[in-house]
Design goal:
Elements (H helix, E strand, L loop, with lengths): L2 H7 L5 E2 L3 H5 L5 E6 L11 H12 L3 E6 L21 H15 L14 E4 L1 H4 L4 H7 L6 H5 L2 H10 L6 H4 L1 H16 L3 E5 L3 H15 L4 E5 L12 E2 L2 E2 L9 H9 L3 H10 L5 H13 L5 H15 L1 H11 L8 H6 L2 H7 L4 E5 L1 H5 L3 E2 H8 L6 H9 L3 E3 L2 E2 L6 E2 L9 E6 L3 E7 L1
Parallel strand pairs: 2-3, 2-5, 3-4, 5-6, 9-15
Antiparallel strand pairs: 1-6, 7-8, 10-13, 11-12, 11-14, 14-15
Length: 431
């Protein structure tokens, strides 16, 4: 596989420095991509860069994932309108380990192969570097005029930021440039990868290598992924879609990909999966024959969810997604965890009921769904719907309105799902 060709057909190249293709054809190359460590999880906004590293390794090259421990303490002005919060070392180290565990789903860190991935942290080589030494040995090679010309700096200076651009942020591109120089010298790294908003910072690094060492280094960026409406990719009303199940359940993660539009799905399946060009063309053809079956979205959601959360979590998400549309979902309801259940029931009306009353074994179903929770407006309505076969509790038909219930009715020892007719749901929460 040829790395540049692979990225080209996938639509993953925004800008590439002349000579990059020729450099990669010389043999196994080393490239790095910087990752912001300001959280202990990646989100899907990071995925394009991570997939670049994945494809790079699959093409026989060596990827370096650089955690910006030092630069994370400063903040990159690129694409930002305000200075970010600075982190302490303990938090950064915790975030680094969490991110490495996630990257292990995409990259080989442990096989012992010549091109196995490595994780590095720029805090390790910056923490002992004094300001005077850095100014003398690095700062003198890049002029202020050169740094001021960068688009990320110009935007902040021309009114996008309320408080202007701090000196701390202004030095960011020089620090990132030094990362490239350091990895060039210590890891023979001649290529930096990143998003298109990083082009200015990346080229500062290649320029520093040229001016200080007379060496040649290269750059390649991917486009910033946006939604069909031009909005920020990966953002929902509730925030980012995270790779960590603590922040975004596998079910919600799966649903995000399942619900993208046709044009987005055709673009995303190239960028966020390792499927071959032929496989993707076949899926697109199948989709065009019958878009209503959504084969593109289903395959995209499967590939990305399995890659991030594993096959079992994917299968649970698929089963959970059928709960609202299937009459044979009682077993699935009993199996899924609380987070998934609540994610499936997002937007469903909720009522709190007395846990002690339910556990007493003395409550009748008709009383539960009228007096304790106003699922029905009257006991007469409840009895009528039960007689018509239009009431299900936990996806099981109920025919006796006077049935006595107990703690065995609770899902996850806490919830009861009530369905009236085909589409009306209520979630009772025992407290």
């Amino acid at each position: 596989m040829d790395f540049v060709e692979e990225l080209q057909w996938r639509g993953m190249i925004h800008t590439i420095m002349p000579g990059t293709e020729e450099e990669l054809k010389k043999g196994m190359a080393t490239a790095y991509l910087g990752i912001d460590p300001t959280a202990d999880s990646l989100h899907i906004g990071h995925l394009c860069g991570v997939m670049m590293l994945r494809h790079f390794q699959r093409c026989g090259h060596k990827p370096l994932a650089l955690i910006g421990g030092a630069t994370g303490m400063i903040g990159d002005p690129s694409g930002k309108s305000a200075e970010r919060n600075l982190l302490d070392e303990t938090t950064l180290r915790h975030n680094q380990e969490a991110i490495k565990a996630q990257l292990a789903h995409f990259l080989d860190f442990d096989s012992g192969a010549p091109n196995q991935a490595e994780m590095v942290n720029n805090y390790d080589w910056m923490k002992g570097y004094s300001f005077l030494d850095f100014s003398r040995e690095i700062g003198k090679h890049i002029t202020v005029n050169y740094m001021m010309a960068k688009e990320s700096v110009q935007k902040r200076l021309n009114g996008e930021a309320r408080d202007g651009l701090s000196f701390t942020e202004f030095t960011y591109q020089l620090l990132q440039g030094y990362d490239f120089l350091h990895l060039y010298e210590t890891k023979n790294c001649r290529l930096q990868l990143g998003g298109s908003d990083q082009w200015g910072n990346i080229t500062t690094g290649s320029e520093l290598i040229r001016r200080k060492l007379g060496g040649e280094a290269f750059a390649l960026t991917c486009p910033l992924i946006t939604k069909a409406d031009g909005g920020k990719f990966g953002k929902t009303e509730s925030g980012n879609i995270w790779l960590d199940a603590r922040y975004t359940s596998p079910y919600k993660f799966y649903q995000f990909w399942l619900n993208v539009g046709d044009a987005e799905a055709e673009k995303y399946i190239k960028i966020f999966t390792s499927l071959t060009k032929e496989e993707i063309e076949n899926i697109v053809a199948e989709h065009n024959e019958d878009p209503g079956r959504r084969p593109l979205q289903k395959r995209l959601a499967e590939e990305v969810t399995v890659m991030v959360h594993g096959r079992e979590a994917y299968e649970t998400a698929v089963e959970a997604s059928k709960i609202l549309f299937s009459n044979q979902a009682s077993e699935t309801l009993r199996k899924i965890d609380e987070d998934t259940l609540l994610a499936v029931m997002e937007g469903v009306e909720r009522h709190e009921v007395s846990r002690d009353s339910i556990m007493s074994g003395e409550v009748k179903l008709v009383d539960l769904l009228t007096d304790m929770a106003p699922v029905f407006s009257s006991k007469g309505e409840m009895r009528k719907m039960t007689q018509q076969g239009a009431l299900s509790v936990n996806k099981e038909k109920e025919s006796d309105p006077y049935k006595v219930i107990d703690g065995s009715i609770l899902l996850n020892d806490k919830y009861i799902l009530v369905q009236r007719g085909k589409k009306n749901y209520s979630l009772l929460i025992a407290k």
